[in-house]
Amino acid sequence: MSETFLDALVVGAGFGGIYQLKKLKDQGLYVIAIDVASDVGGTWHWNRYPGAMSDTESYLYRYSWDQEDLKTYPWTKHYLYQPDILAYLRHVTEKHNLRQHMHFNTELISAVWDDSSSRWIVETSTGVTYKARYLITALGLLSRQNLPHFRGIDDYTGELYHTGSWPDNVNLKGKRVGVIGNGSTGVQVITAIAKDVKQLVCFQRNPQFSVPSGQGPATPEYRKSINNDYNKIWKDCKDSMFGFGFEEASRPTSSVSEEERIAIYEKAWNRGGGFRFMFETFGDITTDVDANNCATDFIKKKITATVNDPEKLQKLMPTQLYARRPLCDAGYYDQFNLPHVSIVSLKDTPIAHFTPTGITTSDGTPHDLDVVIFATGFDAVDGSYTRIRIQGRNGQTLKDHWSNSSGPTSYLGLTIPGFPNMFMILGPNGPFSNIPPAIEIQVDFISNMIADAEKTNGAGTGKGKTVIEATPQAEQDWTEMCDEMSKGSLFAKTDSWIFGANVEGKKRSVLFYFGGLKAYGDRLKDVVGHGYQGFTGL
What we know:
Layout: E1 2-11, H1 15-26, E2 31-34, H2 43-46, E3 53-57, H3 67-72, E4 79-81, H4 82-95, E5 102-103, E6 108-114, E7 119-124, E8 128-137, E9 159-162, E10 176-180, H5 184-193, E11 199-204, E12 210-212, H6 220-227, H7 230-238, H8 258-271, H9 274-279, H10 289-306, H11 310-316, E13 327-329, E14 341-345, E15 351-355, E16 358-361, E17 366-368, E18 371-374, H12 383-386, E19 389-391, H13 398-403, E20 422-424, E21 430-431, H14 435-457, E22 469-470, H15 472-486, E23 512-513, H16 517-529, E24 535-536
Parallel strand pairs: 1-2, 1-8, 2-5, 6-19, 8-20, 9-18, 10-11, 10-18, 11-14, 12-13, 21-23
Antiparallel strand pairs: 3-4, 6-7, 7-8, 15-16, 16-17, 22-24
Helix pairs in contact: 1-14, 14-16
GO molecular function: flavin adenine dinucleotide binding; N,N-dimethylaniline monooxygenase activity; NADP binding
InterPro entries: FAD-binding_Monooxygenases, FAD/NAD-bd_sf, Flavin_mOase-like
Keywords: FAD, Flavoprotein, Monooxygenase, NADP, Oxidoreductase
């Protein structure tokens, strides 16, 4: 057992943790980052499954603060695959000499606030105890796996994998494979492996709308055009609603003729990108049911034109609103024209139990499988926190704090009353947007607030020294506003991870701020402009 005293401890070494470590180090603080993984990457360290790819344009799925890297670091396609993203984050870590401040294979076991010393006492799996004045968690939106339990699963003798912890050197070629789940991950996995496996059985709960990704090479000419305009691109990104590199449409669906509408959909379909189709075509697809139906009618016709088998088509045809995280693919529906690819509707015939050789559905049909892949997603946003003992003032744990409210709550998606000097990157009710720019906005705010508090109160610990805490009223007001804002979106009318509805037994609640990236950034500026409104200790 050993103790290490720190100014700040960062938990996580993905996009958020890397940038937070750099910022605080540059401010002169003694800071260390820990991660349970063996290397940097966060989400992109664990999610190594076939076809794993970001659906954000390559030139915006990176940091904006390194101008040299923006223009010179290689990216050859419109969208980055998992190995590309992991290589990029490793590059940033090495270039900025951050690895020496990182401790890997180190799991956060518990974090307890000590009022007497104004420090967080953090126990880890390595036996090292960190005593830090500031605790910043960058646990990731999607890091705690959602792994449903099925009767008989322990009896299964084949290979079992969850896409969120994919091991190296998995060989699926020539095998009988079952994939449970057809969200973003499931769509990517199914598309990537279909041609290589002997048999593919896709177990789906809800049919999904998916549009082409538009994946393709980034030509030198294209890269040059981006490089010449990077400053404007990033300004526009952070001034936009979702930060995906395009101007979101404001026009209503009903403002154009049917012929014009179809032409707009067709252009978006051909260009590719899930977020582009949902938000660049018309401004009311996610707020107006009639507008949503117009968009889904178009996509349904595309699905019908692609899938040849009537039975498969019927199972693949979505019946709910187009109001989940928008998916895109590289030929998902085409895979179901392959004779060895089948689909099981879990609405009609749920999984009854596992057997030693596979899965049996409720109608008694056995599916013999060599491999079962769980593409069942994550206990998103708060799931990574509730599994850890985080204890604030007066012995209250974070899990208890959230269980006593309508769900996971925060002030600004960053901090929680009763948990002083603790800040969350991408915490509950943070912005629903492209991840890297959202992270940058939050990390900059956290870092600047710490710097301002240090100037005001003086560095150190003890009574009267740098204790930053959100007020209960600020948390309540922010939570109520996020909840009210979500009611205007059709996202609230579907069961998805965006509201925690994908995890059995989990309380459905709002998990995001739907006001947009620019409005969120403006709110943070307003908080600062009013003397860190909603916080004490500054």
